[in-house]
């Protein structure tokens, strides 16, 4: 089994026409059950003057209304605790996994027993895609409990026949201990936490060559596909680093890179992936960046129909060099549409700042973007806060960092250096934007 290239070859290499025919069959079934059993969806469809039988092709999905996180919050407030978009009956419910709530009240998401099976299986596929094999020791640094990724990857690792260390996103010293004994071979965590572990490894004088870790996959936030970030993780831990993506409303682990590192592969037999222009709301052309909109094709308990993720990506449906036919997003998730910063007429995202900051070996991996208001002029100010490893390098690094940011972001923010280890290290999602602007 270890030598097998694909976890589910008949699915992963399915001809595109067959895959899309499968998606259409499952989409029609999902729409019918949502219309019949969900007052939430029935009202939305009627308001859009559409019925399930009106969807005759995958292209017709554009006539269906979007679902937003705000709508789900409002729905659960009006119909507590789970809202009317919960389709499966209570006796089928297996687990509750709310969203992390980093941008507002958490949204409750239910997994049925059938959903647990599907999610475990497709997560095992994503992990096989980036190289996990039976017998690996998987150090699971994703958070456990209500946050969803730790549980899914735990179930999947067990299905793959791995030895799992369910350490979660905690206790960096113990993370390093387990690298040494029993000798973990796979690390799962956020990119920020991986960089923090690598930093502590170096401080303790432990060489990456002294640990058997060979691969890692990093999600929960953007960054793993940023070349400078990937390089720092790979060098700092002595591994091959891959990108991972998921979100609580859809699934914790729904796309991962293959060894080609040519974009994250979607599990398209379970999901319909669209990329939509944020302003025109029309489908983007292949390779064009837009907002990810995702529809559950097999989710039983709380299915999402055209969920507006706010995450920015592009879509490539061409067969990958690895042989997989499922669509990819080259470059991974490129940011969130609501994280876009507009400064002096230029538009940019934190991931672009990350790309520049982490390209300099003189700087630490941490940075913040502070947004403030000029007290005299009332205009917005943008300052990139970074750490220089050596104080004597600060004068030389200020113009270099400004130049790099201007080239990448087409604007020159203010720069402020703080001493090394000033900025908070995190085991979860790093908070890159600190908004201190006066409310107008």
Written account of the structure:
With 440 residues, this protein is α/β, with parallel strands linked by helices. It has 2 domains: 1-336, ANL, N-terminal domain (Rossmann fold, 3-Layer(aba) Sandwich), CATH 3.40.50.12780; 340-435, ANL, C-terminal domain (GMP Synthetase, Chain A, domain 3, 2-Layer Sandwich), CATH 3.30.300.30. It is 30% helix and 22% strand. The protein contains 11 helices and 20 strands. The protein has helices spanning 9-12, 16-37, 39-47, 69-78, 113-129, 149-159, 172-180, 191-203, 227-237, 350-357, 394-409; strands spanning 93-96, 110-112, 137-140, 163-165, 186-189, 215-218, 240-247, 251-257, 264-266, 271-276, 290-296, 307-313, 328-329, 335-336, 341-343, 346-348, 363-373, 380-388, 414-419, 433-435. The protein has an 8-stranded mixed beta sheet with strand order 4-3-5-6-7-8-9-13, with helices on both faces. A 4-stranded antiparallel beta sheet has the order 10-11-12-14. α2 crosses α3 (39-47). The N and C termini lie far apart (61 Å). The model has no long low-confidence stretch (mean pLDDT 93).
């Amino acid at each position: 089994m270890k030598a097998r290239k694909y976890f589910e070859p008949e699915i992963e290499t399915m001809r595109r026409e067959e895959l899309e025919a499968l998606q259409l069959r499952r989409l029609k079934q999902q729409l019918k059950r949502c219309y019949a059993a969900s007052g939430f969806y029935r009202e939305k469809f009627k308001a859009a003057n559409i019925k399930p039988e009106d969807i005759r092709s995958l292209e017709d999905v554009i006539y269906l209304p979007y679902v937003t996180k705000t709508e789900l919050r409002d729905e659960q407030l009006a119909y507590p605790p789970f809202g009317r978009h919960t389709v499966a009956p209570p006796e089928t419910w297996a687990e509750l996994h709310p969203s992390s709530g980093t941008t507002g009240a958490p949204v409750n998401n239910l997994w049925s027993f059938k959903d647990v099976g599907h999610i475990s299986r497709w997560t095992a596929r994503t992990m096989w895609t980036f190289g996990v094999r039976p017998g690996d020791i998987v150090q699971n640094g994703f958070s456990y409990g209500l946050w969803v990724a730790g549980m899914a990857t735990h179930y999947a690792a067990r299905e793959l026949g791995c030895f799992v260390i369910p350490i979660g996103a905690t206790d960096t010293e113990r993370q390093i201990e387990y690298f040494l004994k029993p000798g973990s071979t796979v690390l799962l965590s956020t990119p920020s936490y991986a960089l923090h572990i690598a930093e502590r490894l170096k401080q303790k004088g432990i060489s990456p060559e002294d640990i058997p870790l060979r691969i890692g996959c990093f999600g929960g936030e953007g960054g793993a596909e940023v070349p400078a970030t990937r390089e720092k993780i790979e060098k700092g831990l002595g591994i091959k680093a891959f990108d991972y993506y998921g979100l609580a409303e859809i699934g914790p682990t729904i796309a991962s890179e293959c060894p080609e590192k040519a974009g994250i592969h979607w599990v398209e037999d379970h999901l319909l992936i669209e990329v939509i222009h944020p302003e025109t709301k029309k489908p983007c052309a292949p390779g064009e960046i837009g907002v990810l909109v995702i529809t559950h094709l097999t989710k039983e308990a709380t299915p999402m129909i055209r969920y507006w993720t706010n995450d920015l990506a592009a879509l490539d449906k061409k067969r990958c060099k690895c042989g997989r036919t499922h669509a990819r997003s080259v470059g991974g998730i490129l940011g969130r549409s609501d994280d876009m910063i507009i400064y002096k007429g230029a538009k940019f995202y934190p991931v672009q700042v990350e790309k520049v900051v982490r390209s300099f070996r003189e700087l630490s991996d941490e940075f913040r973007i502070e947004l403030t208001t000029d007290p005299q002029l009332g205009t917005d100010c943008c300052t990139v806060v970074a750490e220089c490893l050596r104080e004597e390098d600060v004068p030389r690094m200020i113009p270099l960092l400004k130049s790099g940011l201007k080239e990448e972001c087409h604007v020159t923010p203010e720069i402020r250096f703080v001493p090394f280890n000033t900025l908070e290290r995190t085991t979860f999602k790093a908070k890159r934007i600190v908004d201190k602007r006066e409310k107008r």
